[in-house]
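Input sequence (157 aa), recorded before submission:
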Amino acid sequence: MNLSFYVNDRPVHLDTAPDRRLLDILREDLHLTGTKEGCAEGECGACTVLLDGEAVHSCLTLALHLEGRHVTTIEGLAASGELDILQTAFVEEIAIQCGFCTTGMIMSAKALLLKNPDPTEEEIRIALSGNICRCSGYVQIVRAVDRAARELREVGT
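Predicted structure, token format:
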């Protein structure tokens, strides 16, 4: 199957099997290794990316669903070598321990903030509910997302 889609705003043309996972395409073909494989069942959230601005598990997203679509990975958030506000907030709020879940958490939070720039703590927790962290707990992670949301609102005003 010949596919044409975008990854981090760059066009990708690929000949691949229609049942191939987006996760494998990102890691093996495009060498974007920030997206992690955790459970391979869509339960842990480590593989979360944005597909047309929506958070999806790349381990469950098949190539046949990619034609003409826009994929954003953790590597696509940094602009001109500068970390995204969410990435910075995660670092500054010490919301990273081992780091394995971090990219999925950040991508889920990004999808939330694209839809809702002023989320409540409950909305943040719901948006992150598909992501599992076994190290840091969620206090710092929720605090980092809230901080990023506040900073984004301040920049927007």
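Checked by second reader. The mean pLDDT is 94.
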